[in-house]
Amino acid sequence: MEQLNTPVVFIIFNRPDTTALVFEEIKRVKPKELFIIADGPRENNTGDRTLCRKVRTIVDDIDWNCKVYKNFSETNLGCRQRVYTGLNWVFEHVETAIILEDDCLPSPSFFSYCEELLDRYKYDSRIMTISGNNFNSDYDPRNEGDYSFSRYPHIWGWATWKRAWDLYDINMSIWPWVRDKGFLNDILHEPEVVNYWYGKFQNTFSGKNEHSWDYQWILTSWLHRALTIIPRVNLVTNIGFGRNDATQTTQLDDLLSNLPLEEIKLPLTHPSLMIQDILLDQYTEQHIYKIQNDSKVLNVTYYKERWLELKLFGNDILQLLRDWGFSRIVIFGTKTIAKGLKNEIDSSNLDLVAFIDNKISLEKNFEGIPIFHPSWIEQNEEKFDVILLSIEGNHDLQVKKQLVDYLKTNNKQIISWKEMILYIDDLANKLRKIEEIEE
Q1: What pTM value is reported for the model?
Q2: What's the CATH code, domain 300-438?
Q3: What SS3 state is found at 215?
C-alpha cells in the first residue's frame, strides 16, 4: 500500500485495547505525518496513570518513515478541552487532517476516501466535514455517486480543513443571539427538529453537556450553511460502546454500536449535483436522534424548560385561553402539568369542568374536580369548550385521535400544553420584533 500523504490525527486517553486496534489500521496506511493528542490521567485515579502510560507506549511503535508530532497533557483536560486544544494545535501546522479517536476503527479505504475528497473540496467552503460514518444502512441514497450530502457532521472518523476548523467556537458565543432571534427555525424548519436541537445547544451552552465538543461543531457547520459528505457505505465503526470508561457511548445495545465495516471503491464516483439529501437527514433524525418528525411529536424536555422560561403558570396561559374564546375547560391527564393548569384556572374566571383519564373506570375526584373515563365526553359535549392535553409522554397524537373518536361533532378543540407553548413562543418572537422596530 502506498504511503498516505494526508496527515492523520490520533486522539488517545486511557484505553489500551481499542487504541491498539485503531493504531494497527493507521500503521497499515503509513501516514507521512502523524499527530498524536493525549489527555492526562484524572486526578487521584491511579488506574488512569497506568493506563495512560500503556497507551502512550502503544503509539510509540512507529516502524515506518513518519514525522511524528505529540501533544501530551500531563493533567486531565477532559474530552471537550482536549479535543479543542489538540485540534487547534494540529491546524497550526497543517491545512488538512484525517481525525480518529481511540474507539473509532476505520476500514482501510477510509483513509484514501478522505484524502481524495479533501483534495477535491479543498477550496469549496460549502463542505466542512468529510465523515466516514454511514449510520443508515437501510437507506438507499438517491444520487448516483459514492457519497451524499447531509447537514449532520458525524465525527466518528472524519476529515476537515484548517479553513473550516478556524470557524469553530467552543464557547458558542453567538448562540444566545441565534436562539433569541429564532434563526434555528430558518435552518431546520421542522418544529420538532428545532426543539430537539434547541435543547442540545442550550444545555451545551449552559454547561450541562460538559464533555461535548461536537455539538459546537454542528452549530458552527449549520451557521455557515455547510454540508457534510456521507459515504454510501459505513467506513468507520465505534468499538467503545458499553465500557465503564466511555464518555458518551455506554449502551452495548445502542443502534450505532459496532456497525459492520465496508470498503469503498476508489477512485470515487462523484455526485453530479451538490444537494442536501433531505430524506437522508430525516432518516437520521428519526432513527439516530429519535426525533419523531414524521408524526410531529415534540421534545418533552425542551417544552418543560420553555414552560418555565415563559412563565406560563401565570396570566399568559389564562389570557391565551380567553383569547381563543374558551371558558369551560376539560383537562386530559392527572399529573404535574394537569395540577399546574388547575391551579391557574382556579385563580381565574374560567371554569374547570372535569378531568379525563384512561385509567379511570369509575367516577372519582382529582384536586376536588370530578375525573371521568374518556367515554364521558360522548354525552357531555355541551358542557365544555376545549380539552387541554396535559400528558407528558410522546403520545399526544394518539390521545387526540382517541378523544376525537368520542366526539360527535367537530367543533370542539383539543389542544396540548406543548401547542400552547408553541403559540406563546411565536407570540413572544413577534412582540420582540415589534419592540425592535419601535426602538
Answers
A1: 0.67
A2: 3.40.50.720
A3: helix
